[in-house]
Every structure is written in C-alpha cells, then in structure tokens.
Amino acid sequence: MNVDRLVFGFAGAMILVSLLLSVFHSSYWLWFTAFVGANLLQSAFTKFCPLAIILRKLGFKPGAAFD
Fold first, then answer.
1. Long-range contacts: 46-52, Cβ < 8 Å, 24+?
2. Distance CA 38, CA 31 (A)
3. How far is CA 38 from CA 21, 31, 32, 59, 62, in A?
4. Is there a domain that residue 62 lies in?
5. CA distances from 15 to 11, 19, 27, 47, 59 (A)
6. Residue 18 falls within a domain, yes or no?
C-alpha cells in the first residue's frame, strides 16, 4: 500500500469517527471534521501533508499525490 492510499484512508476514517463522536458525544467534534477536510483541501494544492511525511519516514513507498 502506498502513502497516498494510506493518507486518504486515514483521513476518511478520522472524518467518520469524528462525525460519530459529534452525534453521540459532543457537537464540538465537528471542528475536528472541518480540520481534516481543510487539511485535505490544502494538501491538494500544496502537496504538503504531515501524515505523508511521517509515513514516508516509516518506509512506505510514495504515490503520485505526495511524491
């Protein structure tokens, strides 16, 4: 699995978890959802993603999005 797929999968999982937490715990978790979405949006334009950097340092092969 490459870095791109891991980043997108992790971001999707964090969005779903924070949505569930906002429904069952507190609506303040929607701020985390917005943060993840904003990070995905800015990484589409800048190709900067902290998770991608960490995954590359852990030895995962880069993909086309975060090379």
1. 49/7, 51/6, 51/7, 51/10, 51/11, 52/3, 52/4, 52/7
2. 10
3. 19, 10, 10, 26, 22
4. no
5. 6, 6, 13, 20, 25
6. yes
Query: How many structural domains does the chain have?
Result: 1
User: What is the pLDDT, as a whole number, of residue 65?
Assistant: 83
Residue found under tokens 């906002």: 22
Model-wide pTM > 0.70: yes
46-58 pLDDT tens trace = 989 999 999 999 9
